């Protein structure tokens, strides 16, 4: 690494940083003028006032501006750009597509499938420009991907886009993660002599840092989908470039370590939603930043903690790539995850869900149906209200009501509450089992806060009478939930725990 190269990297960083500092206020004003703002909804979006979604546009323009400035100066830009001009043009085209799709989505003009289609087009263009992983390296084992090279590369980039997009839920969070990743990749590329990757990482880091000046808590501008998807693509590309060998082979574990936190957040979201019976597209407040805030950390402390964890993972990735010790990258990332789960800072509820599901499956496989006792599961996903007390009242007389199974799923982002519980009656072999089933949405304060699923065995009591008894129970539950929507959370947390359900008791009798 010579002095000229280092000077060029610093100039790339400084130029994009200065441009971002200057462009963000202008982009913020333009977005506010044309209504491209994120409005509070009192449920998931709890910021105080409409905030311009200008970050993506500002970062994109800052990058283009910095590259144009460098091309007019004697900085050696042409030398770096000529290394892989096809890839650079492909990246620019992909960013244009994602920024356009993101702006349209921020305006509310697109459905989820339309946004995904735009992402596929952007990734496809980048893959066609030559960014393809043809083989994987895992602990010295080389795996030829062959035909699967293109699908794997596309899957990696789509995963990076959407996992980072999911993390864009708190002031400064995604920018901090992307800044750490870009800085780490820049350092790795400099040490490895990868000029183009180092240049890209330096310019991206400068633009992100300039944006963060306005995005740190309390933010005056948000990234928007245009920004979060663009940063996701850029970080995904940088991770691939930094961990790719000269023969287009990807050293997989260090690349995964660079994206450890986004991968963890996305994985836990999928586990949480699938194992509670929700759609994977269901919104909630169970992401990493939501949970850390509920633990009492201030927004600033959350950013510091996330930056520390990202840095640790990035250092492990750097060691894995430069020292060619993949185990260091894997151990570092796993250690961060284990600490989060075991200290219950994040991921413990999802771990419980997964463990209980595996235990139940194993018990059923090795021992068959159990008839001694009911099978129950309770997981408090988020919040502090005593849902367990109310849940036990629901299930206390389930056998008398001849219920086969009860499922309660509370997902109330505005109340910062999430709870999942299920009850299955002891297994009883009968010649013919005829069931009735009902699914009841649960509301409080005019908002949907969850659902109750009940399946019962038909008996001499008419089904309509059974459902009426259940309706009384639901009415009692919604009264309790309504208290939560109208009172302060801490006050309700105590009142819910002592509430009784006379409707259920009378129904059981």
In terms of topology, how is this protein built?
Layout lengths: L2 H31 L3 E2 L12 E2 L2 H18 L4 H5 L3 H22 L5 H17 L6 E4 L2 E4 L4 H18 L6 H20 L2 H21 L8 H19 L6 E3 H7 L1 H16 L12 H7 L4 H24 L3 H17 L5 H20 L7 E8 L4 H10 L6 E10 L4 E8 L10 E10 L2 E11 L5 H24 L2 H9 L4 H7 L1
Parallel strand pairs: 3-5
Antiparallel strand pairs: 1-2, 3-4, 6-8, 7-8, 7-10, 9-10
Structural class: alpha+beta
Total count of helical runs of at least 4 residues: 19
Q: Please tally the β strands and state the result.
A: 10
How many domains, as an integer?
2
Describe the main β-sheet briefly: 5 strands, antiparallel
N-to-C CA distance: 82 Å
Strand order of the largest sheet: 6-8-7-10-9
- Indicate the radius of gyration in whole angstroms: 26 Å
Beta-strand content bin: 5-15%
The amount of helix comes to 55-70%
Low-confidence segments:
488-508
Mean of pLDDT: 85
Strand-and-helix sequence, N→C? HEEHHHHEEHHHHEHHHHHHEHEEEEHHH
Shape estimate: globular
């Amino acid at each position: 690494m010579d002095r000229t190269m280092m000077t060029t990297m610093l100039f790339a960083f400084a130029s994009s940083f200065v441009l971002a500092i200057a462009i963000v206020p202008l982009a913020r004003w333009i977005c506010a003028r044309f209504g491209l703002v994120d409005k509070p909804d009192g449920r998931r979006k709890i910021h105080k006032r409409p905030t311009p979604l200008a970050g993506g546009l500002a970062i994109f323009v800052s990058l283009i501006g910095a590259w144009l400035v460098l091309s007019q100066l004697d900085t050696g830009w042409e030398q770096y750009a000529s290394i892989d001009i096809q890839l650079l043009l492909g990246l620019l085209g992909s960013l244009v597509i994602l920024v356009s799709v993101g702006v349209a989505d921020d305006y509310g003009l697109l459905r989820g499938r339309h946004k995904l289609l735009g992402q596929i087009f952007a990734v496809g263009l980048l893959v066609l420009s030559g960014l393809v992983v043809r083989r994987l390296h895992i602990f010295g084992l080389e795996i030829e991907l062959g035909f699967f090279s293109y699908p794997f590369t596309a899957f990696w980039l789509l995963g990076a886009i959407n996992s980072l997009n999911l993390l864009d839920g708190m002031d400064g969070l995604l920018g901090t993660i992307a800044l750490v990743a870009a800085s780490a990749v820049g350092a790795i590329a400099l040490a490895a002599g990868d000029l183009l990757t180092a240049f890209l990482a330096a310019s991206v880091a400068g633009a992100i840092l300039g944006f963060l000046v306005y995005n740190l808590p309390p933010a005056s501008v948000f990234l928007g989908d245009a920004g979060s998807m663009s940063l996701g693509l850029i970080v995904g590309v940088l991770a691939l470039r930094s961990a790719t060998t000269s023969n287009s082979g990807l050293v997989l574990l260090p690349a995964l370590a660079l994206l450890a936190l986004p991968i963890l957040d996305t994985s836990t979201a999928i586990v949480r939603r699938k194992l509670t019976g929700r759609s994977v597209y269901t919104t909630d407040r169970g992401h990493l930043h939501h949970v850390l805030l509920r633990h009492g950390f201030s927004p600033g402390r959350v950013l510091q903690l996330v930056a520390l964890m990202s840095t640790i993972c990035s250092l492990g990735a750097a060691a894995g790539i430069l020292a060619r010790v993949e185990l260091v990258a894997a151990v570092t990332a796993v250690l961060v995850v284990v600490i989060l789960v075991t200290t219950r800072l994040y991921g413990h509820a999802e771990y419980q869900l997964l463990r209980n599901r595996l235990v139940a499956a194993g018990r059923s496989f090795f021992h068959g149906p159990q008839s001694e006792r009911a099978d129950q599961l309770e997981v408090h996903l988020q919040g502090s209200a005593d849902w367990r007390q109310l849940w036990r009242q629901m299930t206390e007389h389930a056998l008398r009501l001849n219920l086969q199974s009860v499922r309660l799923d509370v997902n109330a982002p505005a109340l910062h509450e999430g709870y999942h519980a299920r009850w299955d009656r002891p297994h009883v072999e009968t010649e013919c089992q005829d069931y009735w089933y009902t699914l009841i949405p649960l509301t409080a304060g005019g908002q949907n806060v969850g659902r109750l699923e009940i399946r019962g065995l038909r008996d001499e009591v008419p089904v309509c009478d059974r459902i009426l008894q259940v309706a009384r129970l639901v009415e009692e539950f919604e009264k309790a939930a309504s208290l939560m929507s109208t009172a302060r959370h801490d006050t309700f947390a105590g009142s819910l725990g002592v509430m009784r359900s006379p409707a259920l008791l009378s129904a059981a009798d």
